[in-house]
Amino acid sequence: MGTLGSLRGKAVATVAAVGALALVVGCSSGDDSVTGGGKKDGKTVITMGLYGVMGIKETGLLEQYEKENPDVDIKAEIAGDEQTYYTALQTRLAAGKGLKDIQGIEIGRAKEITETQSDKFADFSEAAGTDHFLPWKESQISTGDGKVLGLGTDIGPMAVCYRKDYFEQAGLPTDREEVAKLWDGDWKKYVEVGRTFKKGFKGDDVAYMDAASGLFNAMVYGYPEQYYDEQGELIYDTNPAVKEAWGLAADAAEDGLTAKLRQFQPGWDPGLANGTFATAVCPAWMLSHISEKAGAANKGKWDVAKAPKGANWGGSFLGVVEQSPVKEEAKKLVAWLTAPEQQAHIFKEIGNIPSSRTALESADVKNAESEYFSGAPIGRIFGAAAQEIPDKQVLGRKDGTIKDTFSQGLTLIEQQGTARDEAWKTTAERIEKAVG
Amino acid sequence: MATSTTKAPARRGALLHRLDIKGAPYVFVAPFFVVFAAFSFYPLVYTSWISLHDVELATLDVMEWVAFDNYVDLWGDSRFWNALRNTITIGVISTVPQLMMALGLAHLLNYRMRASLFFRVASLVPYATSVAAAALVFTMIFERDFGMINWALGSVGIDPVDWEADKWPAQVAISTIVIWRWTGYNALLYLAAMQAIPADRYEAASLDGASRWQQFTHVTVPGIRSTIVFTIVLSTIGATQLFGEPLIFGQGPNGVTGGADNQYQTLGLLLYEEGWKNYQMGRSATVAWAMFLLLVLVFVVQRLTKRLRSRTS
Q1: Cα nearest neighbour of A423 on chain B
Q2: CA distances from A356 to A163, A198, A385, B280, B282 (A)
Q3: Contact A149, A113 (CB under 8 A)
Q4: What is the spatial distance between Cα A282 and Cα A291, in angstroms, rounded to a whole number?
Q5: What is the mean pLDDT of residues B282-290?
Q6: More confident residue, A6 or A261
Q7: Residue A103: CB partners within 8 Å, gap ≥ 6?
Q8: Which of A136, A320, B96, B194 has its CA 20 to 30 A from that of A41?
């Protein structure tokens, strides 16, 4: 009995000890590769983390690369929402686990990455054949000591997308040249046209623009300095550009010119599909979103007109994680994906404007027209808008967060009817919390 | 010589036997406590350590000691009190109707009826749905311009409600998701308890001339009292941790902040905002500890009132 009991005791103790050990081991070990990439079965596996519609997977480029390089296997994961994506990326960079070999970086996060994570991304400054980018694009992802943490995909020159049929109903011109003349050179005129639209429009409840935050972003991005100055100091509360944009966006909100929507949030897409607003300030990359969500039923109703002023709204980069076991292969893939031909291909397929100077000058891009947007010459419109982007673009560490906070501040005016000074105060307090 | 050779193994055997009797239970419960130590106790301690520092998510290795500054700031932070108020109000408007409806539902399920198994299983289906799926569907139903509820309201001539933007509609909408998910689950708990009530009590009650309603209030409810207390405790804990429903209901930046005006930001969301939007892990950990202390406080108050009540009676 005694021996049997002791045996049982021993067995139990062993099981418990093994269990505990397994737990501890399970926490400390894991894959030999932290990025999921590596050499497997004679193939080079490269993993990618992307967001939104960057056009890399959607336009078949990855399959083409795999065909041309049969020993490469690419696994791309796409998150719908950039904010969610970036939060996960931050967590993974901090943990040093769960990363992909190649990670997309949005422009609003570029400064934070270059300032705080530069040692975690591979350097592209020595990479061959990558001197075809717009100079300001490359500088946005470069660190103070000359390290280049990624290569550019698209940029965000803007135009105004508008519904021709609604403009006609409101007694406004519908031709894109004439429409552009209505607000030429000044965003105030764009809002003024909205007042005319509201007065003249006969029919159902259609708002002039989708969201006040769209107008705000479009205006703010037209200036070299937005929320930070070159020394990295916060200047959003004194920068006249921000004040001016805030004031005009608040005017539009208070005058009921907006559909009170939140861009890229649930109500916005059905708003596009059902036509609840007549215009939206549209960076080039937004065209694919509009045509997809507004759907075939609205084809030919939309058109694109030159924006009052040039600005760069958005754009992305592809970076390679330093810890990647297939760093060189991943860098090669990134260089290929951002090469002029591939950028031009993405533009033709879904309309993301290239950040490559060479691609921008190619006939393919220059002569492109959008069938969906009433045959608008988008190559010419956005190409010209790209020329108007200020050569200097000062980025700040928390640009993305501050942009979101301002959008919410304008939502307070639009949806809650908060007084604009009160909304500004709240926004400033939130920014203090977010950056402090 | 002979005695010593026989005695020693016997004594060792007795020792092992005693160890087996006394030690085995500890060994059997050890796996839980190992897991508890690794995934509950250690994080708890580590969180308290972090909450005394200024730490950013991107640079977790750079920690600056600030002692109790984070707690002092939190105490003076209107967002904390707002989140606490929202947590309580959403908790109340989701828990109270939920448990009442569960009680009623359990009472109905307790009747002898056709296909009772089907109804019992069906009542558990919402609980099996993932919180994300449920919240997404409800978000569409409560959508301002094209949602089903506003469409229904419109068809009877009521103006559309901006469910997301206005405080009380938003809180009611979120509570609806919670109620939908948990009512059936609680109902089954009540049902199980109800079936343990001896049938002769009902017989005695009906002999005394008690109506169905009187039977419900005088036999059923007292009979399942401990289960009711149990579900209240569970629901309170659940309400304190409310996170997924409001996060998905708001979608994107508004989800993280609980609406543009923080109109439905719960403590769970505030924790997430501090940690994963502002990347301030120290402040995030402080919120976590504040939530923990709140639960402890609720528990202590509950014990005190119970003791006071038992002393007075």
Answers
A1: B261
A2: 31, 40, 15, 37, 42
A3: yes
A4: 12
A5: 95
A6: A261
A7: A48, A49, A89, A318, A319, A320, A321
A8: A320
Compute φ and ψ for A121, nearest 5 degrees.
-120, 145
Cross-chain CB nearest to A94 (options B19, B31, B60): B60
Quick one: residue A43, left, alpha or beta (phi over 0 = left, psi -120 to 50 = alpha)?
beta
Dist. CA B73–CA B90, nearest whole Å = 25
- Smallest CA-to-CA distance from B263 within B275, B249, B279, B282 is with B249
Token pair listed for A71: 């020993």
Is A23 within 8 Å of B35 when comparing Cβ atoms?
yes
Q: How far is CA B69 from CA B59, B274, B279, B292, in A?
A: 20, 15, 17, 18
The lowest-confidence range among B65-74, B89-98, B245-254 is B245-254
The answer to whether residue A38 scores a pLDDT higher than 60 is yes
Q: What is the DSSP letter of B158?
A: P
Rounded CA separation A40/A38 (Å): 6
In eight-state DSSP terms, residue A255 is: T
Of A2, A8, A93, the CB nearest to B58: A93
Residue B99 amino acid letter: L
Mutation target vs B (from A10, A82, A83; most B CBs, 10 A cutoff): A83
Tokens 């808008």 sit at which residue? A385
Give CA–CA dist A324/A267, Å, rounded: 40
Contacts of B261 (CB under 8 A, 6+ apart): A412, A416, A418, A426, B167
Distance CA A403, CA A420 (A): 17
Question: In the prediction, which pLDDT does A12 show?
Answer: 45
User: Are B290 and B74 in contact, with CB atoms under 8 Å apart?
Assistant: yes
For the residues A172-177, what does the mean pLDDT come to?
96
Q: Which residue of B has its CA nearest to A263?
A: B252
CB A310 within 8 A of CB A158: yes
**Whole-angstrom distance, CA of residue A200 vs CA of residue A193:** 10
pLDDT > 80? residue A8: no
Of A9, A404, A415, the CB nearest to B23: A9
Of B58, B60, B143, the CB nearest to A266: B143
Which residue in A28, A265, A403, A425 has the most chain B C-beta atoms within 10 A of its own C-beta, making it the best mutation to test that interface?
Answer: A265
What share of residues in chain B are helix, strand, coil (percent, to 5)?
75, 5, 20
Q: Output the six-digit token pair for A305.
A: 């007109």
Q: Can you tell me whether residue B216 is helix, strand or coil?
A: helix
Helical ranges in A170-313 per DSSP H = 176-182, 187-200, 212-220, 240-254, 268-274, 286-294
Subunit contact B253:A416, Cβ cutoff 8 A: no
Give pTM, 2 decimals.
0.84
**Mutation target among A105, A276, A411 for the B interface, most CBs of B within 10 A:** A411
Chain B neighbours among A 71-90 (CB < 8 Å)? 81, 83, 87, 90
Question: Does B145 sit within 8 Å of A412, measured CB to CB?
Answer: no
pLDDT, residue A81, reads: 80
Instruction: List A163's β-bridge partners, or say none.
Output: A302
- Interface residue A419 vs chain B (CB under 8 A): no
Single-letter code of the amino acid located at B91: G
Q: How far apart are CA B162 and CA B259, in angstroms?
A: 12
Kindly provide the ipTM of the predicted complex, given to two decimals. Answer: 0.82
d(CA A123, CA A139): 13
- With beta carbons less than 8 A apart as the criterion, state whether A300 and A229 touch: no
Q: How far is A13 from chain B (nearest CA, A)?
A: 6
**Residues sharing a CB contact under 8 Å with residue B275, sequence separation 6 or more, in sequence order:** B57, B281, B283, B284, B285
Mean pLDDT of the region B165-173: 95
CA distance A207 to A194: 9
Query: What's the maximum distance between 2 C-alpha atoms anywhere in chain B?
Result: 104
Residue B185 β-bridge partners = none
Work out the percent of chain B whose per-residue pLDDT is above 90.
69
